[in-house]
Design goal:
Helix content: 10-25%
Distance between the termini: 142 Å
Low-confidence stretches: 1-6, 32-84, 117-161
Number of strands: 17
Structural class: alpha+beta
Mean pLDDT: 75
């Protein structure tokens, strides 16, 4: 066999060495003419030789082969792309969850501040200013000195927080069926007409909420436009008598020592209709908090070793047709902390022998409320939280609700106002009341 059968050629496409036909490197069919051309072997002899020139080809003719379907080999390596790290996606997901949680907490907090007070009482948000300080001082019969700040001054930044005003339920309960004597007989108790020795409110070292004692006054004793401070202004020439009586009570109930020092007013003579019934009602309304505690009608919710009910009574006005009794109420825990301090008015129709409901005296609509606001700012200043924090509709409600309003006659005409409580973030920060002197009240009567 001729060695030409092992002849190789260069592939014109990939440059590799291969046999003619189909390139074993790239799989491309080579041009037959090119292959034959490349495979020609030319034998030449010396010019003097008579031998003819011969041409040989491959012993096996070149056959056309089908193109292979194998993929073309390339001169670079194609890697599969690396899987990209997904850490930033997880970071976005976690961040979104945290942001959603913060927004949810904020929504819940706002909802609690805005809507929760609607279930607790009337409220309005304010930005307010410094709150008033009400100080009650006096000497308890036990000898302990009491000085309590009902509210403290706060700097202006504090009041940028949300503050709400609530109605205070001071309505008197009906104790017509309550057997007070049953409790009184089992306790250290006495009930008799007041004098300087048994009535601590008459002593010279006791100063009431109003900063006054029980010296009697007349209109000529006042100067200025307003009835202040609140004092006794008794007209003894009206054909009936008025007596001041005093209760002292002490007993232990459910492990809590309950003390009471209560001064109350009684009518005497003068042919007043239903006098006995009026007197019973005056006692019940004056001792309402104590009776509520003893009977269980009012649950005392605070944990303490002792609770003391102190109620002083004033008569700011009386004539032949009507009279008013003003109650100065203070409830003291453990002889040092004033749990409650408020005023309440009892108005009596002497001609008909009835107690007048405090919500049936004046027309306290929104026009009245607007007038009240203007006069209150003039008389008491414009920095009262319990006024600034409510609109005229809410103010009208406070002034008309007998559980909240304050209405009584005075030498100047009539004193009108309401009791309220202010809270910040759900905690009570002040309990108070505010009144104005209304000299021309007839146009507002019902």
């Amino acid at each position: 066999m001729n060695g030409n059968q092992n002849e190789y050629i260069f592939c014109p496409y990939c440059g590799g060495v291969t046999r003619p036909g189909v390139c074993s490197n790239c799989g491309i069919s080579l041009n037959e003419g090119e292959a034959e051309k490349t495979s020609e072997v030319k034998n030449t002899t010396n010019p003097g030789t008579a031998q003819p020139t011969t041409q040989q080809t491959y012993s096996q003719p070149v056959q056309k082969k089908p193109v292979q379907t194998a993929p073309v080999q390339r001169r670079y390596h194609e890697q599969e792309p690396k899987k990209k790290s997904r850490w930033w996606i997880w970071l976005l997901i976690i961040g979104g969850i945290l942001l959603l949680g913060v927004l949810l907490i904020a929504i819940i907090a706002v909802a609690a501040v805005v809507f929760l007070p609607l279930f607790l009482g009337t409220n309005t948000v304010i930005g307010g200013s410094d709150g008033p300080t009400s100080v009650v001082t006096g000497t308890l019969p036990s000898g302990g000195q009491v000085t309590v700040e009902e509210s403290s001054y706060y700097d202006e930044q504090y009041y940028l927080d949300q503050i709400y005003v609530y109605e205070r339920d001071l309505e008197r309960l009906d104790f017509s069926d309550f057997d007070w004597e049953e409790y009184a007989d089992s306790a250290d108790y006495y009930n008799e007409e007041s004098d300087g020795s048994n009535d601590p409110f008459l002593s010279s070292n006791y100063s009431s909420t109003f900063g006054s004692n029980h010296d009697n006054h007349s209109l000529s004793d006042f100067s200025g436009e307003y009835y202040e401070p609140f004092v006794d202004c008794i007209d003894a020439n009206q054909g009936y008598g008025l007596s001041r009586n005093f209760i002292e009570y002490s007993d232990e109930i459910d492990g809590v020592t309950v003390n009471a020092y209560i001064a109350y007013i009684q009518l005497e003579g003068g042919n007043i209709p239903n006098e006995d019934e009026i007197n019973r009602k005056i006692l019940e309304m004056t001792a309402n908090d104590l009776f509520g505690h003893l009977s269980g009608e009012k649950t005392y919710p605070y944990a303490c070793d002792s609770v003391t009910y102190m109620v002083d009574s004033f008569i700011p006005y009386n004539d032949g047709e009507k009279m008013s009794i003003l109650l100065d109420v203070n409830i003291v825990e453990d002889d040092e902390y004033f749990r409650e301090s408020y005023i309440y008015a009892i108005n009596i129709d002497l001609e008909n022998g009835t107690i007048i409901d405090n919500d049936s005296i004046l027309k306290t609509n929104e026009d009245f409320a607007a007038m009240f606001r203007e006069k209150c700012c003039t008389q008491n200043g414009d920095d009262i939280d319990g006024l600034n924090a409510i609109d005229d509709a809410q103010l009208s409600y406070f002034l008309s609700n007998k559980a909240t309003n304050i209405v009584f006659y005075s030498p100047y005409g009539m004193e009108v106002g309401y009791s309220y409580e202010t809270t910040e973030n759900g905690s009570s920060i002040a309990r108070g009341w505010v009144t104005i002197t209304l000299q021309e009240y007839e146009d507002y009567l019902l």
